[in-house]
Amino acid sequence: MKIAIIGWGSLIWDPRELPREGVWQEDGPIIKIEFSRVSRDCRLTLVVDENNGLKTKTRFAFSPRSDIEDAINDLKIREGTVKKWIGYVDIKHDQNSLNYHPNQVNIHEDLKNWCRDKSIDAAVWTALLSNFFEETKLKFSVHNALKYIESLSKSANKNALKYIQNASSDILTPLRSKLIALKLIE
Fold first, then answer.
1. Structural domain harbouring 74
2. Is residue 57 part of a domain?
3. Residue-wise pLDDT tens digits, 42-93
4. pLDDT tens string 109-163
5. Starting at the edge strand that comes first in sequence, how are the strands of the sheet with 95-96 ordered?
6. Structurally, how many domains does the chain consist of?
7. What is the rounded (10 degree) CA torsion for 111, 88, 61, 158?
């Protein structure tokens, strides 16, 4: 079975021990993403965000696994999360993770179509969502994200900006574009 791992953030520049074959390819599926998840260390990380995200071309690499459960487990370990937060579509066996992510119908359909177009049997991705409101009590917006970053301690602020800077240059979400315009990142 041919399984693609879809990536767009730190998975690309810091895959750690994630088993994968070859390099990250640039013609991944288009997914709405934004830096709208507050991580444990206060960074804003890139996640699927149907409300605030910008349609962005992602990257992919092939998993060396031939079983979808093994590929899910590999990504789960790399992301330090639970199976619930790993999305998947398996067109060969007509299975997907919609039971965990009922409000992500669009991404599941887009990924199924992308797999068919690429003659790929399945795809896995990190399905974490925005938690900006839960963490800050503010609705996500570029303005509120800038306020959040400015409110961080000096070291946390530097770390947050570095994470956004490290994203591939073709990841130009509304927040990243604003940070570039303000010359806070390149």
1. 3-131
2. yes
3. 999 999 998 999 999 999 999 999 999 999 999 999 999 999 999 999 999 9
4. 999 999 999 999 999 999 999 999 999 999 999 999 999 999 999 999 999 999 9
5. 21-25, 59-62, 3-7, 122-126, 86-90, 95-96
6. 1
7. 100
Take residue 183 and report the two structure tokens written for it: 């010359």
Residue 122 lies in a domain: yes
Q: Is 168 a member of any domain?
A: no
pTM exceeds cut of 0.85: yes
Tokens 């993403």 map to which residue? 33
pLDDT of residue 38: 97
**Would 172 be classed as within a structural domain?**
no
- Contact of 158 with 43, CB cutoff 8 Å: no
Rounded-to-integer distance, Cα 35 and Cα 31, Å: 13
